[in-house]
Structure formats: structure tokens, C-alpha cells
């Protein structure tokens, strides 16, 4: 009996040995480097015919571009599973994949702690306007014009999206004495909710002292925070975003920062990465870092391993370990 064929798209950093070991039971094909045109051509000329699963690395979009309708349409008919490295998968056209019968996995859980750590870092930095003294001391100005900051204790942390990262953020914020409120598509079980207060979206906007965005980007959530939503928030609210930049209309956010409606922001993600809205670059109350949420050795290795585990489970058992939410309601992850 012939071995199943699997495809790697993009490079690996930490699990090359584990990938190569799969050669004992799978036929391994690779597209580590190249262009979108080359990848499309390979698909059309049958080079990947017979593959049943593919590993899509975290940076493969720079090789193939997004998995949009055009690309999905030329993927081999034998393909059944797309194992994606990343908690976010907004560069995959889920509808096009679902229509073609393709099951998708992502890497939740593996990213929760590292992303929440950066979220708390940004939260504290925004509350203390940390960018100003950090810049001042390196310019020989000691504290510079650092304004007085705020303690997290007693503040309401509103979490928009109480998934794994949101809950990890809540756990850390409790240690600082913060009160936790959240809004989700559905209310959590009492075990997961703990002492957090479930609020409607508008209630969360109105009651949060700090608003943390921890939800996926899709057509429904793009610009979920824009001028109308900002107007419903407390004067002097702090906003933290470690999810996806396009959840926020950055121009509206800059306007709210400049008016004082938003006191400060802590951002790890941006709407048009790697470009950053000029108003955020110029504003001293914007505490920003360049999408480093999962940039640790431990987390990136765990993410790569989880993708391999998804691929192995898919090929050997016909079931993904961490299917994306849009496909979780299907029996055993099957379409």
C-alpha cells in the first residue's frame, strides 16, 4: 500500500527533524520558497496531485500570497486538510475552503500564554504612558515630560473575545487586582467564566476602563471598533490590541487619541502591517510593538509541533485536533 502524500508550504524553524521523520510513513513534498505564480503553476500542472494534507507555515503567505478563492480553486482534488500555523487565519478564505470540502486547523492554545503576556505588558505600558520615559531616558532627558500614570488595581478590564487568549489575559489581570468583564458570541460555562461578568457588546464598551481585543478577524469583526464604538466608551479609556490590527479603524483611533477620548493605547498589531498609521507613530501615548506576541522560542516551537500533530491526526485518523471554530460544529471536524 502506497504512503499518503503531504505538502509543506513555507519554511520550518524548530521542527525540521520531526518533519523529516514523517518521511517514514508519508511521501513528503515541499514548497519552502518561491512565488505565488510558481505555486499556482505547480498546482495546475499536477505536481501536487495526490496530497491529502498540507502544512502551511506561519510566513508562507509571503511565498504564495493568501489562500483566496483563486488559489483554493487550483488546489488538488485529493487535498482534504489545511493545517495552518497561526492562531489567526484571516488570510485563508474559509468559505472557499469549506465549499471545496477542505478542513482547516489553526494553533490556539499554543499561543495563549505568550500573547497574553504581551497583552499585559502593553496594558501596563499604556496605563503608565511608558513610551514617553523610555524615549526620554535614551535621549538623556531622564523622565522627560512623563505624565502621571494609573494603577491597574480596581480598573475594569473589558475583554472582547473570551477565548483561550482572552482567558489567559484575564488570569494575569486578576493578579493586578483588575475586575474582569467580557463579551463573547456566547456566554462561557461557569467553570471558564469564573468571576468575570458577561456583558452585551455595548455594555462592555460603556463599562471598560481598559478594553482588550482578543477576537478573530473576519468580515463581521473588521473595524468592530470605529468612531461609533469609540464614542460609547468612557472618556480616558485605554485600548489594548494583540489580535489583529484591522479590528480597529486606525484613523478613527488616532482621532480619538488626539481628542483625549482615548487616553492611551497598547498595540502589537496594525491594520496594514508592516505599515503603521502615522498618527500612531507620532503619538507619545501610543505604546506600540511590531507584532511580537508569539515571538518566543518556546511558543513558536509549540505552534510548529501542533501543526504537525494536526497533520498527523488528519492523515492517520481523519480528524483535526484543533479545527477552526467555523468548522467545529461539524461531526468530528468533518464537512
Can you describe this structure?
This protein is an alpha/beta fold and 335 residues long. It has two domains: 5-110 and 298-333, Rossmann fold (3-Layer(aba) Sandwich), CATH 3.40.50.720; 112-288, NAD(P)-binding Rossmann-like Domain (Rossmann fold, 3-Layer(aba) Sandwich), CATH 3.40.50.720. It has 15 helices and twelve strands. The protein has helices at 16-21, 36-44, 61-64, 69-74, 94-99, 112-127, 131-138, 164-175, 190-193, 201-207, 227-231, 250-259, 278-282, 297-317, 325-328, and strands at 5-9, 27-31, 51-56, 81-84, 103-105, 156-160, 179-183, 197-198, 210-213, 237-241, 262-267, 286-288. The strands form two sheets. A seven-stranded parallel beta sheet has the order 8-7-6-9-10-11-12, sandwiched between helices. A five-stranded parallel beta sheet has the order 2-1-3-4-5. Helix 1 links the parallel strand 1 and strand 2. Helix 6 (112-127) crosses helix 8. The longest helix has 21 residues, at 297-317. The chain is elongated. The two termini are 26 Å apart. Residues 331-335 have low confidence and may be disordered. Belongs to the D-isomer specific 2-hydroxyacid dehydrogenase family. GO terms for molecular function: glyoxylate reductase (NADPH) activity; hydroxypyruvate reductase [NAD(P)H] activity; NAD binding. InterPro entries: D-isomer_2-hydroxyacid_DH (IPR050223), D-isomer_2_OHA_DH_cat_dom (IPR006139), D-isomer_DH_CS (IPR029753), D-isomer_DH_NAD-bd (IPR006140), NAD(P)-bd_dom_sf (IPR036291). Keywords: NAD, Oxidoreductase. This is D-3-phosphoglycerate dehydrogenase.
Amino acid at each position: 500500500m502506497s504512503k499518503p502524500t503531504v505538502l509543506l508550504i513555507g519554511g520550518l524553524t524548530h521542527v525540521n527533524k520531526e518533519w523529516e521523520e514523517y518521511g517514514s510513513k508519508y511521501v513528503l513534498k515541499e514548497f519552502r520558497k518561491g512565488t505565488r505564480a510558481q505555486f499556482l503553476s505547480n498546482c495546475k500542472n499536477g505536481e501536487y496531485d495526490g496530497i491529502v494534507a498540507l502544512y502551511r507555515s506561519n510566513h508562507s503567505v509571503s511565498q504564495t500570497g493568501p489562500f483566496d478563492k483563486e488559489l483554493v480553486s487550483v488546489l488538488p482534488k485529493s487535498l482534504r486538510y489545511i493545517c495552518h500555523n497561526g492562531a489567526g487565519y484571516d488570510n485563508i478564505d474559509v468559505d472557499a475552503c469549506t465549499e471545496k470540502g477542505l478542513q482547516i486547523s489553526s494553533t490556539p492554545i499554543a499561543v495563549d500564554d505568550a500573547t497574553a503576556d504581551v497583552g499585559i505588558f502593553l496594558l501596563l505600558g499604556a496605563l503608565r504612558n511608558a513610551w514617553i520615559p523610555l524615549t526620554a531616558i535614551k535621549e538623556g532627558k531622564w523622565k522627560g515630560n512623563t505624565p502621571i500614570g494609573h494603577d491597574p488595581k480596581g480598573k475594569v478590564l473589558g475583554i472582547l473575545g473570551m477565548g483561550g487568549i482572552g482567558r489567559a489575559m484575564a488570569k494575569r489581570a486578576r493578579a493586578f487586582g483588575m475586575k474582569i468583564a467580557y463579551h463573547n458570541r456566547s456566554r462561557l460555562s461557569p467553570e471558564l467564566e469564573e468571576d468575570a461578568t458577561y456583558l452585551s457588546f455595548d455594555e462592555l464598551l460603556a463599562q471598560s476602563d481598559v478594553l482588550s481585543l482578543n477576537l478573530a478577524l473576519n468580515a463581521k469583526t473588521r473595524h468592530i471598533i470605529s468612531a461609533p464604538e469609540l464614542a460609547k466608551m468612557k472618556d480616558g479609556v485605554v485600548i489594548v490590541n494583540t489580535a489583529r490590527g484591522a479590528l480597529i479603524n486606525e484613523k478613527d483611533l488616532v482621532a480619538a487619541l488626539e481628542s483625549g477620548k482615548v487616553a492611551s493605547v497598547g498595540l502589537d498589531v496594525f491594520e496594514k502591517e508592516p505599515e503603521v498609521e502615522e498618527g500612531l507613530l507620532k503619538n507619545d501615548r501610543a505604546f506600540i510593538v511590531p507584532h511580537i506576541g508569539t515571538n518566543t522560542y518556546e511558543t513558536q516551537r509549540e505552534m510548529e509541533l501542533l501543526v504537525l500533530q494536526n497533520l498527523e491526526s488528519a492523515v492517520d485518523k481523519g480528524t483535526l485536533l484543533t479545527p477552526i471554530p467555523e468548522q467545529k460544529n461539524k461531526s468530528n471536524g468533518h464537512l
